[in-house]
Amino acid sequence: MPDRTQLFADVLAGSSDRPFATSAWQHFVGEEYDPERFATATVDFVRSWDWDWVKINPRAVYYSEAWGSVFDPDDYSGVIPRLVSPAISGVADLARIRPLDATSAPALAEHIASSRLIREQLPDRPLLQTVFSPLSVLLQLAGLPLYPGDVVYGSSAAFTHDDLIRQDPDGVHAALQAIAQTLAGYVSELIKPVASGGAGLDGIFYAVTGTASSGHFDAESFATFSRPYDLIVLDAAKDANVVFHTCREDSHPEWFTDYPIDALHWDQFLPGNPSLDEDFGVTPVGGVSYDLFAVGGDRAEVANQLERTLTSRPRRPFLLAPSCTVPTPADPDSLRALRDAR
Length: 342
Prior knowledge:
Blueprint: H1 4-13, E1 20-22, H2 35-49, E2 54-56, H3 62-65, E3 70-77, E4 80-85, H4 106-121, E5 127-132, H5 134-141, H6 161-167, H7 169-191, E6 203-208, H8 219-225, H9 227-236, E7 241-246, E8 263-265, E9 283-288, H10 299-312, E10 318-322, H11 332-340
Parallel strand pairs: 1-10, 2-5, 5-6, 6-7, 7-8, 8-9, 9-10
Antiparallel strand pairs: 3-4
Helix pairs in contact: 2-4, 5-7, 7-9, 10-11
């Protein structure tokens, strides 16, 4: 069996004899509100497909649960539980967002525990926990959609992204600072060795989920409301591996070329995005558009995009992966094609 940890490190360093390392991830609806069941589902998925590296993919709302947003774990729309009550129901609620201790805040402590369980069962794989950016978390706390055109299941927010950001910019910055400080502490616990009480992970998968491509933030406003707080969280991961994800079309990977990251992930096949052979000075991550992995999806297009990806990076290391979380359930033949590409 190949040394997956060394392979991952070599690919990130651009020195691998094998040009890429492969992974995919999905949500485990029905298992993700219990740390032991979630860990088991994650480990089973990784072992079933023999992925080279692991993006731990917890429930998408746990960040906002940490500050008091409430979701119904028995009522999902797709892979998102119904929002019962947001932590921020109006601009005045920004003042309620304070720094948390990651080891005692239930939602964060739960994911430190599940990460440790996954580490115990997968000692031979690079493990990265998913961490949303503070700006993404802030929008989620307010029940606002992270992606253009999306609707938050259960949300009745009577204000917009602009209302939240523009009416009280000082309050926004204070809330973002609190979120960033909390997530930095959380990251430190994730990458701390198990022997020292941490989860023993290899790094994080850091996602500016939707905020770079939403249309609500141009380069200047993103630099104001995201970048300073991204860097606080990323500084906590400076001794670990960071795979950085910017999502969907017009996702502006060029905004992040000077971030302290090891790999940069975007969807090369969507409008407004560069191809995977664009040189941003870090290891690129890409492969096949995530939605093609749906059951009944276009397997011929999966094969086509896979071939285009492989031919775009001859002898140049990269991480092979879908452009985002694959559907639940996913088409096994499409996952097999991804895995067998190596």
